């Protein structure tokens, strides 16, 4: 027995004084309405109505049930209405997750979304660990690398180029490496991965293969922005993601090096659960971010800009 449905039919029958009219009101047959009320009486072990051929009247037990059930049904109806509004209004809480490394690329568009839709309550978490949307109760995640597994829907936004670069000041003082091997005679930065605690190797396209090299780090950080700042300060050469390096390279604050060995095997993704059951605020946010970031040239460089021949 569907208890909520049975109680709803009981309440309408009590209000209308007629089971047939209650059935029409609920969009079911009179036989189904009668059966539901009888099942409810059987489950409760009491009679709820005095029945005549023309009219229903409540028993004492029926009157008490009606008094208790009406407020509960009103609250349930309000809860359903609130849930339906989530499909119709761009409002309510929105939880997003992204690695700290992607803050530079993602955050300005998130703020633009917040300004456009002030009724959405944003809760942003920047964490370099991969976020399980279900476990962390997040609505939308961003990830750099390969598409997330585990049933999430992933959409590619941007390519990630790994660019060896240095500041003009560093090159003036120390010169520029002409080959990958010459990096050994230069000060270099390193990035320590949050998930393993190990320094990430640098990677290079040599011929048709990606080759990984352990580059001794003169300065190592577990934050890509801190690493980028060290390179910008002229302290060392770094291999930076294009989302960090594209703007300062265009502005002349960094110079790309060894561009013939640049790799571009990973991407930035937005990921989320089943789109068909998403509230409107979540679907709107996904569409907004996809529109703002997909192949956005602000965050990667062309071959001409990199002087790749």
UniProtKB/TrEMBL annotation:
Residues 1-59 form the HTH lysR-type domain. Keywords: DNA-binding, Transcription, Transcription regulation. It holds the Pfam family HTH_1. InterPro entries: LysR-type_TF_proteobact-type (IPR058163), LysR_HTH_N (IPR000847), LysR_subst-bd (IPR005119), WH-like_DNA-bd_sf (IPR036388), WH_DNA-bd_sf (IPR036390). GO terms for molecular function: DNA binding; DNA-binding transcription factor activity. The keyword DNA-binding applies. CDD domains: PBP2_CrgA_like. Coiled coil: none annotated. Belongs to the LysR transcriptional regulatory family. This is LysR family transcriptional regulator. It comes from Caballeronia hypogeia. The lineage of its organism: Bacteria, Pseudomonadati, Pseudomonadota, Betaproteobacteria, Burkholderiales.
């Amino acid at each position: 027995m569907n208890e909520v449905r049975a109680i709803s039919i009981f309440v309408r029958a009590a209000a209308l004084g007629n089971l047939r009219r209650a059935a029409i009101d609920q969009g079911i047959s009179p036989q189904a309405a009668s059966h539901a009320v009888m099942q409810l009486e059987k489950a409760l072990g009491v009679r709820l109505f005095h029945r005549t051929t023309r009219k229903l009247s409540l028993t004492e037990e029926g009157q008490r049930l009606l008094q208790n059930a009406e407020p509960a049904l009103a609250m349930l109806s309000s809860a359903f209405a609130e849930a339906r509004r989530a499909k119709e209004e761009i409002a309510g809480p929105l939880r997003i997750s992204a690695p700290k490394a992607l803050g530079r690329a993602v955050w300005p568009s998130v703020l633009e979304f917040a300004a456009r839709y002030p009724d959405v309550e944003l809760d942003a978490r920047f964490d370099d660990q991969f976020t399980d949307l279900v476990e962390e109760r997040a609505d939308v995640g961003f990830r750099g690398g390969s598409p997330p597994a585990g049933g999430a829907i992933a959409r590619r936004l941007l390519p990630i180029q790994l660019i060896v670069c240095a500041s003009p000041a560093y090159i003036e003082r120390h010169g520029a490496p002409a080959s990958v091997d010459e990096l050994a005679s230069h000060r270099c930065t390193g990035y320590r991965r949050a998930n393993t605690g190990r320094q990430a190797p640098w990677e290079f396209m040599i011929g048709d293969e990606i080759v990984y090299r352990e580059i001794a780090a003169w300065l190592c950080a577990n934050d890509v922005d801190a690493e980028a700042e060290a390179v910008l300060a002229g302290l060392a050469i770094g291999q930076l993601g294009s989302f960090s390096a594209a703007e300062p390279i265009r502005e002349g604050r960094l110079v790309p090096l060894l561009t013939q060995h640049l790799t571009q095997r990973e991407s930035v993704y937005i990921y989320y659960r089943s789109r068909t059951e998403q509230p409107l605020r979540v679907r709107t946010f996904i569409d907004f971010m996809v529109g703002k970031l997909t192949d956005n040239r602000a965050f990667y460089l062309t071959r001409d800009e990199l002087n790749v021949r």
